[in-house]
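Quick one, tokens below. Sequence please?
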């Protein structure tokens, strides 16, 4: 009792002092979390609920009020970046105090491993680290695999499956291995864990053997750090005692993404004193595909009987509309702690749902929505897959909008599909190079075998490869006609605009059929490969020549590389949902919200328990995206992509139903270009908006998402009211709407490029001379977006 009182008063003093010093007054639950220093504590923190603030205050309290030495406290962070972030924040809050030990679980595990290896006299070597693509290429040619994880796996794949492992297969394989290690799955069960790579379990078995016996030292990868540390703490009582005695207070952050082996290490570490604070949000667990185990949190009391659980539900980040909508959205999941995120922040803008008629308008819509904004660092565009980034950056680069690509994936530009397309194009300049044909011979209509290529290479008369094949190499009957046609098509290809050229490669030259065959034979994901081809077409669309296309690809690669360095610049952030965790922006656009992307086709293909777990994780991922926005959140979907109909994401439909539960049936049909906005508590209760005013057809995807008049407002249920608005189109009444008006000699005004004169129109392309030079634009886009006006005389 006395101790409690003393603690309360020391707590009060501490909170008052810190409130004056750093200007943050902790709320009641946050204060409890700070004061509850002894015994196990599960701190369930909603997004933006100030968990980092609380964690830092808790550590400060232990040091300043309880007199704990900094070296007795261990804070385990999710990544090195969050360790740095915490250190910095801690230094700001407690400038006079020495730092405590903030580091990742891997770094803790590595310490244990080092210790263990030293004690047992085992020489070892770490086999991870970034390899440049050229380094990888170079090393790949060697007979013995260099002692690097990827190179060893590449080598084993070649031996066991045959052929060369692709980048995606390497990703799949390393994820599979991580999952197995992190979940501590026994070898007998490896074959039951699904992996897209054939014989993954056999490769893993060979990999484990190689690491133990393939070199003069024991080889360890990052996953091994965890399993070996876990094993060492299990079998070496001396080591266990040493680490158990090292810390009196342990704290783990982002614990929803902690895996079974990581939990097991922490359990061992705190077994004696049980002073463990686990900070987590089960609703933000998005890494179960690589071994994170959110179910552990749901059974926290089993691992730590008597543990206390606190819910930090007050969101300080976002406006009420966003918080209420996200809070209701996440409740569609079953396996979770039932939390109720709330905020005292102002109501703010409603959540916007924008349904475009086609994917083709998405990037240009974003460009228009962002052009003219000054605080670009306050804007984020979030997507499920990295593949969304390339088309986007193409559009931003053209529009001159600076962007920062978080975790930019440069591999697009060296992907074999991109290389193939460029090789097809190179063949159109000369058909006299057998070495070029050799690169694509099996991907061409007329399928030229390896033997035929070998025979061709023997000829060396410098003539057309097609002529030489027909005249000097033994061919199947059907090949003669196909190769003759290919020869003509390659010649025509050279003068085609690049988009048409890509379509010809895909169709007439047989590349898509070849991809089909490879997908069947090698288990590649067709959707993904077609996506690359579609992106290439998108890049090629406004370009005139194949040379322009090759240059543009090089340029974009450079731009992407440079964009990684723009982190602290005033630039729009483009990020996957995964990488956006922990970040916040004033305005957030979530894009490509269609069925098959989020939830992904993979999520949907899973059946039974695995299926519902995948679906719940997809919901959490969407929730992570939504909760990054401080004041403006816009969800973007569309109804057509690359000529095929697509369906909006069920999650968008879910949000729409939250926004407007009244109009479910109508909403299910998703009106073209419709804009729906959600509201939050605070509107007049019990007033239902008229169905007619709830949504509006908006086939002008450029309509401003912020300048809108309210057409109806009301409140449904107890938590969320609805405001649905009429969009005010910003399309100019003078905008050219008919293609007939686009004739050579006509003077026009472009929104961005200013005055210009039409030089030529050709199908969908219109070439215009502006002050800053000639541009070739898409007629369709100009008309649909209302970008061009007739210049007034
Ligand atoms: N009690 C409080 N009063 C006022 N502002 C607060 C309080 N607690 C936290 N904040 C503010 O809320 C914002 C979010 O806090 P913080 O970054 O600590 O959240 P978080 O929970 O770590 O976020 P997330 O996990 O979603 O990334 C910060 O600007 C912080 O200063």
């Amino acid at each position: 009792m006395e101790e409690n009182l003393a603690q309360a008063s020391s707590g009060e003093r501490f909170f008052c002092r810190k409130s004056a010093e750093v200007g943050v007054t902790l709320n009641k639950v946050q204060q409890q979390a700070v004061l509850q220093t002894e015994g196990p504590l599960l701190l369930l923190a909603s997004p933006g609920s100030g968990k980092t603030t609380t964690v830092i205050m808790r550590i400060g309290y232990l040091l300043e009020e309880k007199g704990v030495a900094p070296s007795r406290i261990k804070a385990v962070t999710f990544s090195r970046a969050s360790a740095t972030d915490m250190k910095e924040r801690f230094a700001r809050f407690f400038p006079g105090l020495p730092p405590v030990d903030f580091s990742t679980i891997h770094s803790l595990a590595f310490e244990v491993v080092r210790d263990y290896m030293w004690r047992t006299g085992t020489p070892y070597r770490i086999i991870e680290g970034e390899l440049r693509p050229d380094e990888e290429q170079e090393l790949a040619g060697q007979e013995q695999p260099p002692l690097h994880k990827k190179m060893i796996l590449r080598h084993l794949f070649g031996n066991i499956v045959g052929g060369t492992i692709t980048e995606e297969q390497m990703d799949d394989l390393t994820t599979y291995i991580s999952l197995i290690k992190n979940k501590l799955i026994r070898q007998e069960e490896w074959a039951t864990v699904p992996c897209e790579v054939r014989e993954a379990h056999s490769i893993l078995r060979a990999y484990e053997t190689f690491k133990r016996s393939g070199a003069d030292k024991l080889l360890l990868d990052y996953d091994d750090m965890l399993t070996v540390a876990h094993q060492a703490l299990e079998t070496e009582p001396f080591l266990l005692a040493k680490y158990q005695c090292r810390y009196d207070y342990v704290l783990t952050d982002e614990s929803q993404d902690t895996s079974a082996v990581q939990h097991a290490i922490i359990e061992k570490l705190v077994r004696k004193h049980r002073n463990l604070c686990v900070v987590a949000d089960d609703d933000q667990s998005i890494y179960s595909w690589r071994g994170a185990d959110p179910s552990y949190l749901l059974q926290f009391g089993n691992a730590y009987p008597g543990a206390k659980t606190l819910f930090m539900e007050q969101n300080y980040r976002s406006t009420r509309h966003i918080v209420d909508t996200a809070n209701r959205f996440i409740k569609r999941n079953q396996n979770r702690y039932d939390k109720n995120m709330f905020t005292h922040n102002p109501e703010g803008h409603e959540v916007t749902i924008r349904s475009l008629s086609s994917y083709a308008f998405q990037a240009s819509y974003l460009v228009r929505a962002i052009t003219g904004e000054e605080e670009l660092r306050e804007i984020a565009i979030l997507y499920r897959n990295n593949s969304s980034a390339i088309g986007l950056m193409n559009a931003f680069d053209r529009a001159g909008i600076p962007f920062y690509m978080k975790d930019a994936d440069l591999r697009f530009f060296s992907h074999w599909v991109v290389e193939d397309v460029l090789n097809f194009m190179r063949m159109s300049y000369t058909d006299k190079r057998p070495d070029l044909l050799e690169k694509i011979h099996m991907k061409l209509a007329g399928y030229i075998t390896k033997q035929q290529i070998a025979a061709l290479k023997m000829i060396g008369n410098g003539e057309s490869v097609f002529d030489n094949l027909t005249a000097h190499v033994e061919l199947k009957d059907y090949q003669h006609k196909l190769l003759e046609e290919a020869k003509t098509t390659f010649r025509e290809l050279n003068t085609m605009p690049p988009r048409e050229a890509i379509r010809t490669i895909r169709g007439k030259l047989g590349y898509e059929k070849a991809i089909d065959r490879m997908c069947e034979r090698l288990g590649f994901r067709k959707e993904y490969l077609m996506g690359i081809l579609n992106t290439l077409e998108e890049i090629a669309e406004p370009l005139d020549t194949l040379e322009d296309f090759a240059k543009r690809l090089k340029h974009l690669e450079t731009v992407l590389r440079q964009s990684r360095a723009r982190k602290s610049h005033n630039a729009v952030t483009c990020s996957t949902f995964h990488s956006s965790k922990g970040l916040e922006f004033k305005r957030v656009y979530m894009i490509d919200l269609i069925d098959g992307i989020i939830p992904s086709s993979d999520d949907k293909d899973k059946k039974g328990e695995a299926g519902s777990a995948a679906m719940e994780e997809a919901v959490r991922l969407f929730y992570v995206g939504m909760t990054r926005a401080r004041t403006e959140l816009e969800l973007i979907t569309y109804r057509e992509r690359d000529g095929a109909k697509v369906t909006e994401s069920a999650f968008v439909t879910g949000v729409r139903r939250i926004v407007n539960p009244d109009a479910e049936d109508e909403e299910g049909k998703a009106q073209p270009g419709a804009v729906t906005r959600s509201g939050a508590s605070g509107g007049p209760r019990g007033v239902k908006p008229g169905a007619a005013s709830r949504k509006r057809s908006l086939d002008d995807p450029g309509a401003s998402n912020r300048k809108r008049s309210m057409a109806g407002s009301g409140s449904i249920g107890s938590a969320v009211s609805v405001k649905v608005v009429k969009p005010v189109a910003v399309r100019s009444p003078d905008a050219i709407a008919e293609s007939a008006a686009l004739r050579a000699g006509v003077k026009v005004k472009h929104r961005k490029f200013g005055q210009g004169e039409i030089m030529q129109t050709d199908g969908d392309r219109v070439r215009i001379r502006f002050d800053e030079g000639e541009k070739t634009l898409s007629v369709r886009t100009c008309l649909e977006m209302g970008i061009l006006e007739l210049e007034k005389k």
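Residues 24-27, 30, 45, 47-53, 316-317, 582 surround adenosine-5'-triphosphate (CB under 6 Å). The first strand starts at residue 41 and ends at 45.
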